[in-house]
Amino acid sequence: MVAEAHSQTADPHSFPNYITAEMNMDDQMIAHMIQAVDNDPEEGVIAASAEEEGRFTSDRALRRSQVFRVPAENEWIGVYQGFGQFIEQINAQVFNFNLEGIEALQIARYQAGELGHYGWHTDSAYPNNRRKLSISVQLSESEDYEGGDLEFMFRDPPVKASRQKRHAIVFPSYSVHRVTPVTKGARYSLVAWIRGERWR
Ligand SMILES: [Fe+2]
Questions:
Q1: Does the reported pTM lie above 0.85?
Q2: Is 29 a residue whose pLDDT tops 50?
């Protein structure tokens, strides 16, 4: 997986709100990922409130999607390795955050039948605030679904991320983002969070 990231900002201590990079993934592996969540879907959950630390809850108003948690074994080992190199490269070129390790990769499915979506949120709200970088890789062709846009709220109006298959969108986990309801077809993505030391 090779990234080509444009990353220069005028201030060397500044960094872009997010970047888009092309990932090298063959069609066979992408089909395998899609099959994994179709064969063994698990309801997507959100972290419970601070009073219920460590618990997860289902809130279908906020999030309606299915996930497959990718085990770090067998045919998936190469995916983890490639992904690790990809993130290391992006982080060195662009963000330069203090990172420690990757959380389990997930393949997510948002489908039209249930208006699959994930409302405005950040990935690093307590108790998940050791998450520093988030990545979403588009696994579907843009024309295979309607709606299902990954959007950022840096300011109003929201900014739409690329829908191009194999495009990885990499952003600081504190960014406010959402996936708009899928109204036709299904959108699949590979998502990951990279953890690190506390912000300072
Ligand atoms: Fe998210």
A1: yes
A2: yes
